[in-house]
Inverse folding.
C-alpha cells in the first residue's frame, strides 16, 4: 500500500511540475493573474 501511495504522489508531483508553469503563462497572457510567482496551493521544493 505504501508503495502505491509513493507512486501516486510521484505521478501527481510530475504532473504539477509540468502543468503549473504552462498554466501560469496562460493566465498571465490572458490577464487573469498578476506576476507573483508560483500559483497558490503548490510550492515546489528544490531538490
Amino acid at each position: 500500500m505504501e508503495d502505491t501511495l509513493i507512486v501516486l504522489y510521484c505521478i501527481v508531483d510530475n504532473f504539477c511540475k509540468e502543468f503549473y508553469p504552462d498554466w501560469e503563462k496562460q493566465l498571465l497572457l490572458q490577464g487573469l493573474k498578476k506576476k507573483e510567482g508560483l500559483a497558490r496551493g503548490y510550492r515546489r521544493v528544490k531538490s
About this structure: The chain is about 60% helix and 0% strand. Residues 1-47 form one domain. The chain has one domain: 1-47. The first helix runs from residue 2 to 30.
